[in-house]
Amino acid sequence: MLRESCIIAAISLGLGIAIQGGAVAQTNPDIRVVVNMVQLNVAVTDKKGNYVTGLRPTDFEIVEDGIVEKPATFSEGNGPVRNLGEVVVQDAPGQAQEPSGQPGSSLLSFKDQISGANVFILFDTSDYMYRGFVFAQDAITEFVRSLEGADKIAFYSYSRDLSRASALTSDRSQVLQAVRSTVAGDQAALYNCLLLTLKDAAQNTGRKVIVVFSNGPDNSSVVPPEDVAEFAQSAGVSIYMISTQQARIEPVSTAVFDRMTAATGGKAYFAKNWKEEHQYFAAIRDDLAHLYSLSYYPKFNPNAGWRTITVRLVGDKLKGYKVRTRKGYRPQPARFRNEQTVVSESSGDPSSTPAADRTQEPFAGQKH
Fold this sequence. Notes:
Rossmann fold, alpha/beta, globular, single chain, 18 strands, 2 domains, six-stranded mixed beta sheet, 8 helices
């Protein structure tokens, strides 16, 4: 009898604590979900490949997994970023959500999330590069000098290993010196080194772009290109690639370069000679200058795996135009917090997702 009384008393005490804790939770919730801003680089071209300028935020429709999203910011080219007003995020059942960067968030400020353009240049210094090394250096040097719209530039080189010759900086002379100091040698591990470059780029806010110069196929990587493409999309980094005809020795590499860049919203070019190398670097510079930047805070979405993003143009007059942007992303798993730490449902690093929780996404971001 005494034992039963003790059990009843314990249950009653537990219920009292639970009820009291519930009352406290209702008045001062301890757990929130912060929905991070998803940023998109969007190129719009006509049937002839010319850039379409002068579009307005209302000309775009963003759809994530069939959910129409409300744009939070908008800019064209190197123009100023416009805040499109207060963002209302739909609550998940039993959870309060607030946009990252808005009042009350302990994460990056709104200004930090939308400012800046960071360009990472990744240069092939493998043994494929012996013949055209100096010409490639000249083309990259000219490209760096022409990037007036970029806030910061980093220059990396790779063969079997990655060399961070110049970290992200606004000092153009430092980058140019790093370009001229590179030397060629060893085999090529492009995908390994590109993944490391992506991880560096993902640590930064604002627009993030990687421009790769590759003179041939990858013959040393252990990382599959599918994983690299998925990481780039989830981190919001556009990949552009310039390669020479050496890459066409292995048709698989050509197809991989095309699909990887397209999945991230970038483009791949194959230069026949050093003159075309200059032309294609100039084409990338023009593309960066004409991109629309759109961002949004995702509405509640129970999908913790791959989320497909579609950007459409609204209106009959815009139907003939082509839109190029990344295909989607994989959010980070939520992390619970105490009173000082905020839960984050991020569109960032997919490598933090437990392998058992990840589903394989088709390479080019097709629905599955």
